[in-house]
Design a protein that fits this description.
By secondary structure, the chain is an alpha+beta fold. It has a domain at 24-114: OB fold (Dihydrolipoamide Acetyltransferase, E2P) (Beta Barrel), CATH 2.40.50. It has two helices and ten strands. The chain has helices at 3-24, 32-37, and strands spanning 29-30, 42-48, 54-56, 65-71, 76-81, 94-102, 105-114, 123-126, 131-134, 139-141. A five-stranded mixed β-barrel has the order 2-4-5-7-6. Strand 9 and strand 10 form a beta hairpin. The longest helix is centred in the N-terminal third of the chain and has 22 residues, at 3-24. Residues 1-24 form the signal peptide.
Length: 143
């Protein structure tokens, strides 16, 4: 076999390996049921269950925000976020929670909100320290 053919085959094998590794680490949205089966971190998309309200007492514990969310399959779970209540949470259309499930409670480390605004239809990321990072990279601090 010629040297150029061997180099070509090695190059093709490396490219295929690279493409497989990219596909293996993609994060897709999960449900609460899927998150309950595995102790790793999941992205769960859903909607705030307004009928069950929310609980946030800044005087008692400013870093604990609780609410209920309905996932894409219709299952409602309690969510505990270890951070301040995001500004305009009540106006959000859709939520993406990043976190882990423990028993019947989902512990979110991040909350991404889709806010209905005719000027700003972007997801914003609310971090645990109260800063808000928008998709365009700008960071705002609401403390």
């Amino acid at each position: 076999m010629r040297k150029s053919a061997i180099i070509g085959l090695i190059t093709i094998a490396l490219c295929v390996g690279f493409l497989v590794s990219l596909n293996a680490d993609t994060n897709t949205y999960s449900t609460f049921s899927e998150a309950a089966k595995d102790p790793k971190e999941f992205h769960v998309m859903g909607y705030w269950e307004k009928s069950q309200g929310m609980h946030y007492d800044a005087l008692k514990d400013a870093n604990r925000f609780e609410f209920h969310m309905k996932d894409e399959k219709g299952k409602v779970n309690k969510v505990v976020y270890a951070g301040t209540k995001p500004q305009d949470f009540e106006r959000s259309e859709k939520l993406v929670l990043i976190g882990k499930m423990d028993k019947d409670t989902f512990y979110a480390s991040k909350i991404l909100m889709k806010c209905p605004s005719k000027y700003n239809n972007d997801l914003v990321e609310v971090k645990q320290d109260g800063t808000v990072e928008k998709q365009d990279g700008t960071v705002e601090n609401y403390k």
